[in-house]
């Protein structure tokens, strides 16, 4: 009897250990997924922000892709801008549906592409205009993104891909000059590296007074800052654009399962300068939130070196942000503009 009891006790203990290990691994994998989500790694290019989803490459499927019959709606688009895009012109007679079908058949890699043409004097996304006839369409490839500049080899490949697409449409193509586009991409990439700035403000809590995640998030809600699905907290505009974000300084996401028992030692408020329309004003707002957060939860506002961050230091930062705004304005990429959000996504 004692032997059987010992065996049963051993099996139970082993099952318990295995269960704890599996639970730990599941939690670790879940947290890793959420951490990766905190910094988006979307495969689409920022220039797709205003383009219909059909512009993203569709994987081959059996049968034809759906044909759009809606001719009453329009999807306005920006005119081609050769400062920032490589342009290949398609000439012929085709509809938006024809172009969609040709993209499907040619298996063209359309990541980041815009397809624009003029109809009744307005630029619009050709792929959304199912039955509208076009004599000319511009296939526009972005010269840069946060992933880097487009290479001359990729530009050449794109021109070749467009020739294959044109054959499906019975159209001709007029590609832009590859060498000039590659040179523009290199210059633009250097410029983007100089102005692509993210400003951070840290709020550090003492080890014995670190707030629980639930208490922190409760206060942030009062500030109009909400927890997102990515595990970060967001202060957003009425149309859903980020003004600034707040994350744990250690980079871990805020997990609902941990909020009630895990103290938070420090948080960082982040401002993506080029993606907001008035970074100076929003920086001031972000600093004010950080100070209130430190006051209510007994923390301290510090910079990345752990030094106290006060009004004098913030004034210096505001001047630097104003200079960046002016530089972007001069280059035709105003802070917070559609173009800026495309490039710096």
UniProtKB/TrEMBL annotation:
Bilayer topology annotation: Single-pass type I membrane protein
GO cellular component: plasma membrane
GO biological process: cell septum assembly
Oxidoreductase among keywords: no
Domain ZipA C-terminal FtsZ-binding, chain residue ranges per copy: 195-321
Superkingdom of origin organism: Bacteria
Keywords: Cell cycle, Cell division, Cell inner membrane, Cell membrane, Membrane, Transmembrane, Transmembrane helix
Entry annotated with the keyword Cell division: yes
Record-annotated membrane-spanning stretches: 7-26
Subcellular location: Cell inner membrane
Alphabetized SUPFAM superfamilies for the sequence: Cell-division protein ZipA, C-terminal domain
Function, as annotated: Essential cell division protein that stabilizes the FtsZ protofilaments by cross-linking them and that serves as a cytoplasmic membrane anchor for the Z ring. Also required for the recruitment to the septal ring of downstream cell division proteins.
Family: Belongs to the ZipA family.
Protein name from the UniProt record: Cell division protein ZipA
